[in-house]
Amino acid sequence: MNCKHYQREIEHIELSGSFSHKAQKHIESCATCRTFKREHDSLRYMIGGLEKVKAPANFDTRLRARIAASKQQKSHGFLFFQPTFVRPALTLGLVLGLVLAGFLLIRPFSASNQPLENLADLPSFSPDWINENDFSRLKDEPQDKDEVKPVVKNRVRHFTAYNKSKREEVQTNELGNSPVRETTLPLGFDSEASITIPVKRDSRSFVINDKRVSLRLVTFGSQAMIEGHHLARPVYASNTERVW
Amino acid sequence: MSQPALMSSPLSSFEELRLGAAHAPALARDETSDHALLEATRDGDEDAFAILVGRYRNQITNYIYRMLNDYDEAVDLAQETFVRVFGAADRYQTNYAFSTYIYRIATNLAISELRKRKRRKLFSLTGLFQSKDGDQDVEFNPPDESPLIDVAMVDEERRVAVSRAIGTLPEKYRAPLVLRDVEGKAYEEIAQILEMNEGTVKSRISRARGLLKDKLKIYF
Q: Which of A46, A52, A67 is facing B7, going by the closest CB pair?
């Protein structure tokens, strides 16, 4: 048996117990275990030597008062207003408030309360700009294997995906998230029209020929950061009036 | 901030009062088991509860003090422990020894306080700088047979260092170590108090001692 076994015995011997004969013999012959035992004994002695503090003389009186107060609290007052109920109630209220606030922040922005930005240089709206199928692909993860061709380069997957008419190579991690500060969102126009929007958890609304378009970039997945950049992908706000 | 009152005699003030009053029934009740006392408490016998308090008051205060290194907080939490015992007397089950039960409550309160401190990023300066030169009455007043002053100072310094070192241990190591090496509990009872298996208790104590050895190297 090795020293570790005997050191365990030294360490965990019950206060009234004694070492096994084998352990005793080993400790006598082994310098390492002797040192271990000496240090162990010193430590136990030092901890054991700490003074025992005792409760103050008025402990009982204070305790009686405290118990009397807690009894009174139990027998009087509206249940809800007792401290044991107020705290959980407040906590619950706070949690609900936070959930509501989170919901309001995350849900797609309604057009009425968003800053609008006129992009006069964008081409006029035409329903023929983009195929409806192409647009729907923007909303979801690419699923069509023919469309998505992941190529692994230096542990980073490169997708060529999202839009049939405007193929764009997007660097992603394994979850398909792109580490970008801003993204250029192809609009699928005949021209090279695009909108560059910062990657944030918010939306931006644009008015294009009196039609309101809301684009939203969302962080998703683990919310992890890569080199300080949010992982994000473009999606279209679901409750926005669709111009395409 | 008040000073920790040091143990001068195994008799608590409550016991002294009772003995002083030469109460024969009270003497008889000294022998009553903790379970029986708690049952009596449940039936509304507040004297029975007072005896329980007398039995555990100092142990619990000392235990929490070693966990928190703050005497006032320790007294407050010791009181809270008894308030909880009293409040939950109806629900008390005799699956474990009463001491296991009360230490478990005390441990939970102490750990909860440590976590609160951690959250607030506070740490008790009072515990670190508590000295015995305050204006508080200290019941422990050793007579002249004290060792030479320099030896006493070294001892005191070592005690403070040990106390501080324990105070810096992570809570998961601190509780089992204090229960074992300060309170002298058996592994089995520690396992019950902390609701973990004995193997875990042993390994945590071992780790705690290892950490303490590193911190207190100069005193070996």
A: A52
Which class in CATH covers the domain with range B9-123?
mainly alpha
Domains in chain A: boundaries: 3-48, 79-108, 111-139+178-236
Question: Which residues in chain A (14-73) have CB-CB distances under 8 A to chain B?
Answer: 14-15, 38-40, 42-44, 46-57, 59-60, 62-63, 66-67, 70
| Predicted TM-score (pTM) of this structure | 0.54
Residues in contact with A240: Cβ distance below 8 Å, sequence separation at least 6, in sequence order: A108, A111, A205, A212, A213, A214
Closest Cα in chain B, distance from residue A72 (Å): 12
Q: At the topology level of CATH, where does B131-220 sit?
A: Arc Repressor Mutant, subunit A (1.10.10)
> What is the token pair recorded at B178?
């204090």
Give A124's DSSP letter: P
- Cβ contacts below 8 Å, chain A against chain B, sum to 117
Contact B220 A54 (CB under 8 A): no
Give B17-73 pLDDT, tens digit per residue.
343 334 444 445 567 888 888 888 888 888 889 999 999 999 999 999 999 988 999
Q: What is the DSSP letter of B78?
A: H
Cβ distance A222 to A187 under 8 Å? no
